[in-house]
Amino acid sequence: MENVTIRMLAERLQLSTATISKALNNSHEISEETRQRVLALAAELNYVPNPYASSLRKKASNTIAVVIPEVADSFFAEAINGIEAVAQEKGYHVLIYLSHENSQKEQTILKDFQSGRVDGVLISVTTETTATGLEQLVRDKPVVFFDRVCEEVKAAKITTDDATAAYRATTHLIAGGCRRIGLLSASRQLSISNKRAEGFQQALLDHQLPLLPNAITYCYNESAANYQLLKTAFLENDYDGIIATTEKLSTAVYEVCEALQWRIPEDLQVIGFSNLSTARFLNPSLTTITQPAFEMGKAAATLLFRALKSNNFPLQQQQEVIPSSLIARNSTLAKDK
Amino acid sequence: MENVTIRMLAERLQLSTATISKALNNSHEISEETRQRVLALAAELNYVPNPYASSLRKKASNTIAVVIPEVADSFFAEAINGIEAVAQEKGYHVLIYLSHENSQKEQTILKDFQSGRVDGVLISVTTETTATGLEQLVRDKPVVFFDRVCEEVKAAKITTDDATAAYRATTHLIAGGCRRIGLLSASRQLSISNKRAEGFQQALLDHQLPLLPNAITYCYNESAANYQLLKTAFLENDYDGIIATTEKLSTAVYEVCEALQWRIPEDLQVIGFSNLSTARFLNPSLTTITQPAFEMGKAAATLLFRALKSNNFPLQQQQEVIPSSLIARNSTLAKDK
DNA sequence: TTTATTTACTTAACCGATTAAGTAACATAG
DNA sequence: CTATGTTACTTAATCGGTTAAGTAAATAAA
């Protein structure tokens, strides 16, 4: 069975393809009667328009790209959910690209976007990303950064209150009696990592606590390597409190404590930036900084679609900070909020 | 700056567009010298081919679709990982569609595939799915079902050993002393749900245990509703062992036990079909049936690409069962494997 | 030497939609 | 009664590649 095209509809109805196209697109140039005839035949023959023909001509694909470091992370999974909810509603398609925390791969992905394959991009950069290639992308088409943004690039950004969250986390640990607090960071480059580090340091300062020489541990993207790194760091620094700034690192802390036979929270209080739905069922339940992942995805997508709809929307100036929340559980001792 | 097209390259080099196209596609018809000149200019002008022009002409999009009920589930997240790994390697693009456990939405998604937007489809159906629309899809283009397959449709399928896994889970509970075992099922229609139920019943039979009248609880897709449902079911049936056949349901059990103040495993032993990386850190650590999610995704994608490469590959006859594994932890008492 | 084949191209049709520009028929305004 | 508009179409160009078919020149085979 041949694919049904606009031309076939035209022939059957003794009309031009232009008329069919306009009828299907509800053009006012077409009489109601003709429109109905076209719609009827289209339905009867199960006509489905070829998106590529349309994209080629219109130079618009009704497709957006989502570039993230990984999917197996509650934050990104939930963010995709938020993005997809908006995209589905707007009739857009979502291409997912995983950079696997590899800026090389990310570059390759960004390069592909110069092809016009997608109308817009939502991106959360890798831990290694520098601005290279991103300015180009932002110049070329609508882009919204979310969570892991690139500070140097002037573009729309949806973030959470990273510095404040880290400040709050640190204060929470201090309130629980911690004096030797460590921070596990995913990256030296990432602005959200740096902001979290700043909030951390500011909190120590405000509470007259010294910054340990090895207060901040920069981790890898590989769990086996991190395991060794953390084990050593824990033993050398004798932390009494730790802030894990990513979900994976939160779990790693539990793993290392198990191995070292450090009790949580008696020996080490732990707070993790995590969206794990099971945080409350962990042993002990994990005090978290929970990010509004779904909302951030939704906000990012909403912003993007606004830009896609009206091209005079000043997308690059948009900034939105959605607050995270600290949920105190049993891995920390402070009783405050 | 205008977009660089093949035509522009042709004009600059005083060649025809056909030559350019062939040179870029490494056709043997083009001399090495010309090929190099074309490649050099293409690189210089940063030429990026328009995928839609190419897709339109070649009737191939180098894009596959992944249709899943949700992303916020370790199994699906990991499966995407596996799929993406293969797709990236093969130079394909991945469109993600979420059916949100809604067969209506799924239908809409499937309908879109008739447009030729994607060259192949990887799908894990909703809990409500009937065969409608799926046969059509399978007839139209390469499709591989994974995990949640549709039994009635003759098509390539990647599954795990559902019946065996449930049998093993049940036996494990029995070995731990359970006599009143319940099974939480996600669906009455899903073949994987039914297979798990079968394995469960067979194990009871083989161990001379009666099947409780309310042994199987069919759950909703909504956690608040499930919470109530399970609470009631637990109280009414006084289970001493429970098998949660999905990740979400596993967590729900912990929630309900907390509310009912039932201790795990003393009052209720729990085993869950789950790929949560935090299973071992739960309180108590959760005995799981862990599915090879990444591998299943990879296997499904590999199968699909084999079919996309050679069109005489008998895709519809492919069946692969990848074994799951039972990982005994503290939510159950049996000490076996 | 003539014919066949190979090499390295070009020409032009084509994929299936969209859309600027054109037109015939009819209505309305001046 | 002519000018102007409006309605409901059609014609043909276009988006940017790919590819079947054609060709001229060089090379090999008969």
TrEMBL record, chains A, B:
<feature type="domain" description="HTH lacI-type">
    <location>
        <begin position="4"/>
        <end position="58"/>
    </location>
</feature>
<dbReference type="InterPro" id="IPR028082">
    <property type="entry name" value="Peripla_BP_I"/>
</dbReference>
<keyword id="KW-0805">Transcription regulation</keyword>
<dbReference type="InterPro" id="IPR010982">
    <property type="entry name" value="Lambda_DNA-bd_dom_sf"/>
</dbReference>
<dbReference type="InterPro" id="IPR000843">
    <property type="entry name" value="HTH_LacI"/>
</dbReference>
<dbReference type="GO" id="GO:0003700">
    <property type="term" value="F:DNA-binding transcription factor activity"/>
</dbReference>
<keyword id="KW-0238">DNA-binding</keyword>
<dbReference type="InterPro" id="IPR046335">
    <property type="entry name" value="LacI/GalR-like_sensor"/>
</dbReference>
<keyword id="KW-0804">Transcription</keyword>
<dbReference type="Pfam" id="PF13377">
    <property type="entry name" value="Peripla_BP_3"/>
</dbReference>
<protein>
    <submittedName>
        <fullName>LacI family transcriptional regulator</fullName>
    </submittedName>
</protein>
<dbReference type="GO" id="GO:0000976">
    <property type="term" value="F:transcription cis-regulatory region binding"/>
</dbReference>
<dbReference type="Pfam" id="PF00356">
    <property type="entry name" value="LacI"/>
</dbReference>
